[in-house]
Amino acid sequence: MTRKPPRKPELYKADAKRMLVMGVCNPAGEKQGYNGLYFTDSELRHLVGNGALRNVPVKAEHRGEQLGSVVSSFVDAAGRLNCVMRISDDTVEGAIAGGLVKDGVARELSLGYSVDVAHSQNKLVAQAKTVLEISLVRKGARDACYVTAFEEEGKQTHWCGEKNKDSEDPWDDFYMHCCSALE
After folding, report:
1. What residues are paired with 147 via a beta bridge?
2. For the chain, which domains are there?
3. For the whole model, what pTM was predicted?
4. pLDDT (tens digit per residue) in 90-105
């Protein structure tokens, strides 16, 4: 009896379920003139305006395989960078990550990025910042980055806990951003 080799998983199987996850991935940006490792308000708006976050990989705890990708981003009325990510359960890792979001274990988001730093006039100067990935995490480095909602394919949107109560409906900001971009 000969055994068949295991099938390689496809990136997106036709019958795979997809989950949309929305959340704040960076708090309000720093003010103009700031020289540091965090993003300024204008840098956040530039990321959104030029679509730089679209297709950025989504990971779990900044490691492992890609679980999905960013499909949209917007800056909300409070100046926070929000993103909508698509996660697919066609891999074990993606299915587990989706379960961790649903169960409230992966409640926070963390933006993984690099910063070019130059030495100028006897001080360090932060230059280009490049987003590498966005991670679903148990506890992020910054307090104000968290999952606000998720929606499994074919099901209603689930709003996440206490952290979402302090803001207005984040989908309103998303729709406003998308609709104004289409006009």
Report:
1. 23
2. 18-182 (3.20.16)
3. 0.78
4. 888 999 999 999 998 9
